[in-house]
Structure formats: C-alpha cells, structure tokens
Amino acid sequence: MTMDPSRFQMFYGPEGRMTLVDRALEAVMRGAISIGLRFPRYAVLASMVKPTRKLMKPSDKVFVVDDHVGVTGSGYISDLYRIVDHMRIEAQRHRLLFDAAVDVGTLVDSVSGYFHGYTLYPVRPQGVAVIIGGVDKLGVQLYQVDPSGTAFNGDAFALGVNSDKAIDMLENEYRPDMTLDEALNLITSVVERTGNPEPTIQVGYISLDNPVFRRETINGVKKKST
C-alpha cells in the first residue's frame, strides 16, 4: 500500500520542520512580551499585561503554581491557563504522594510531556510558551518550555513580540550581582525599549531567603524595595 505524502504535510514541512509546531511558535511571537531572570539568590518573572478593550481589565499573566514555583508565558492566554492548571495539579499530586514539595525540574518535565503530547497526533499544539521559576533543594531555578515540549535552563529568557531584541538587551545588560530593584528596572526598561511606552507589567519573584513566590503589578519604571 502506497502512503499519500500529502497526509504528512500537516506534520512536516519541506525542510523537515514540524509545521504545526512552527505555527504555534508564531502565535507565541505575537503575544505580549514576557521575561524571566535568574540570579544566584532569587528569580524574577514578568509579563506585560494589557486589556484587549479599553473598559476591560487585563488578564493575569504571572501565576503561583505552588508556594515555591511561579510561571508566566506568551501566546494564547487560554492555553496558558490550561498549562497553569496542569502544573498546579501536578504540584498537588506530588505533595499528596510524597508529602513534599515538587522540585522544579520534575515539574518542568511534566510540562514538557504535556506540550509534547500535542505534537504526536493531528491536533493543534498549544499556542503558548512558558517561563518557569522557583526555588528547590538545588537552588534557584529558571526554565523555558516551548510548544514542542523542548525545555531550556538558563539565566535569562524572553518570549513574545520583539523577544529577540529583548534577549539582545538582556545579554548586554544582565549582571549576576543585580539587586531586585535593579532587575525590575532592567525588565521595565527592556519592555519599554521593545516598543511599549509606559507599560503595565505583572511581576513575580522568589528568593532563597524567602522561598515563597510573590506577585505584584508595576507601571513604568518604578523602584522596588524588599
């Protein structure tokens, strides 16, 4: 029996790339910018929030998964909500089974598997990429997971519109000895310089000294003290 090559066009393009995943990545690149930074003693997640209509309240973009883990992302907000629910269930399941908080790497593996599952069949991959930050027994952790299920570990990530430009700025201006004030000002400055004057940014942060993920909203360049 001869296979019809057109049946596989939805999976792989001429260069061997996964067509549906590429479309999902395009959705991520159209989303509002999100940034994650890791330092030796703390991590920060941030995302620009903006309502789609003047009289609408903006949607949350930074979420508490468990006391010691937070997540943000860019892309379809409904898909982001689904992955947040998945992560929260996994975190609670781990607590029930092992009577301990889930380590960040295990949670990232679960997210990777969740995303990857949508690439195995002719269904729409999740149109969102996420940045996960937290503290566990290995220290401060920061990961990015894209719609293919590929996970990256690092010190700085950016997703969404003009994220390539944002990454270039972070590579030039990030310092591992930054205070939280300086990190928040860097994030706000990067968001502004990528074409978002006077942005409203939702942020979350966690530290080794206080391993509880906290959230707040800042407007424009604002000093933050802890």
UniProtKB/TrEMBL annotation:
Keywords attached to this entry: Proteasome
Gene Ontology molecular functions: endopeptidase activity
Gene Ontology CC, one term: proteasome core complex
Top-rank taxon: Archaea
InterPro entries, per the entry: Ntn_hydrolases_N, Proteasome_alpha, Proteasome_sua/b
One Pfam family here: Proteasome
Keyword Mitochondrion: no
Annotated GO biological process: proteolysis involved in protein catabolic process
PANTHER family named among the record's database cross-references: PROTEASOME SUBUNIT ALPHA/BETA (PTHR11599)
Protein name (database record): Proteasome subunit alpha
Organism annotation: Caldiarchaeum subterraneum
